[in-house]
Protein: Abi family protein
Organism: Castellaniella daejeonensis
Amino acid sequence: MDVDDHAAAEFYLQHLNYYRLSAYWLPFEATHTPHTFIPGTRFTDVLNLYLFDRNLRLLVLDAIERIEVSIRSQWAYQVSQRHGPHAYLDAGLAANRGRWESDLTKLEKEVQRSDEVFIRHLLATYSEKLPPAWAVCEVMSLGLLSRWYGNLKPMPTRSAIASVYGVNEKVLGSWLHHLTMVRNTCAHHSRLWNREFTITPLIPKTKPQNLLHQFQPGSRKLYNTLTLLLHCMDIVAPHHSWRQRLKALIEQHKPPTRAMGFPPRWDQLSLWQ
């Protein structure tokens, strides 16, 4: 590997950790045992890929945050309107009672350790065991929100939440499960760009129209994640600049998009226009 600036390389290795950075030079290896690099590989190429991945994680977290807040709102609204403000405490609305009990215990712990002023006020003012759905959803983790939605038995309520995002309830459930894994990957500063996910999102087959053709069937790569994020962002934040920011990030760093599952001419697909 060519190192043009040894002082800069030492600085980055000191602060980024040799082992952490080594994951980003694997694509540049000609052989792994012994370690040999493709001729012309530069340390700056590896660092460029690392910086791309870091900025990509921040961009993905930005989208997940907005989508998570929206789905929290829809869950609280639909559950409250259809079944009452504390309906989530009703085990009869759960498809699996054992899972409901486990999730309720986790939710109680999240409420107890919350230092939010509105949570403390509600618990001190009212006699209910937990706050109403529109308040308690604000302390739910994405993982717990995913589990609560996935265990919601009344199909009309599940479908009403999913319809906001133009997909059926089964697809939305899989998206929430997948995004929980993606969010945790980003939150723990783990490599994202060429990861293969063990939990993959379902691809909508019928609705919304034409979205099927934006995905890559059978892929475990990040492209499908970015596709569903972009679809949801168009709904929850119609005037967003996320599409342009992502395309600009790719243009700036020029990562190997095929390693992320991007198809040829991906930027010509309608979703990316």
Notes: The longest helix spans residues 43-83. The mean pLDDT is 94. The beta strands are 29-31, 36-37.
